[in-house]
Amino acid sequence: MKYIKVVFVVLMFSMTSCKEETVTTIIEENIVPVDVDLQSGFQDKSIKVFFNNQVSFQAMLSGLVPLSGPIASFSTQLERGSTSLKVRWQTNNSGLVFKIDSTSIVLGKSAKYYIGIEIKNDSVKTRVQEVPFNYF
User: Does the pLDDT value for residue 117 go beyond 50?
Assistant: First the structure.
């Protein structure tokens, strides 16, 4: 009788382990790594970048513009499909007035994505591509 109980417990444990592994694999297939470059318009501003209403990046950026490359960059992981992108930035030196703009981006089946974000004329402009940005 003891032998039957041990086999039953081992069998149940094996079955639940397989189910969890399958679920984990499915979830990982829907997640994609993303590198985000804040390319221009962010100098001397306090900013927040949101993906799907969650803060992904927050900083007070310098007024110094790099000779080559983005003003700031960060990496994250996002779900494939449509994603909401919102950027909030300081519009004056007192830090009391902020502007918010949002857009949607779509991530497909690539292994990795690169997103470039700019602020032009008080609105957010984005580029999504499958290769890193070239800076000269």
Answer: yes
Secondary structure (DSSP) of 36-57: EEEEES-TT-EEEEEETTEEEE
**CB-side neighbour CA atoms (13 Å) of 79:** 10
Distance of alpha carbon 115 from alpha carbon 32, whole angstroms: 12
Place of tokens 């221009």: 40
Domain range spanning residue 61?
Answer: 30-129
Task: Indicate the pTM of the whole model.
Answer: 0.76
Contact status, residue 67 vs residue 90, Cβ threshold 8 Å: no
| CA angle, residues 56, 89, 78, in degrees to nearest 5 | 20
DSSP-based helix, strand, coil % in the chain, nearest 5: 20, 50, 30
pLDDT tens-digit profile of 14-58?
444 444 444 444 456 799 999 999 999 998 889 999 999 999 999
CATH of the domain at 50: 2.60.40
Cα(128)–Cα(117) distance, integer angstroms: 9
If one counts the domains in the chain, the total is 1
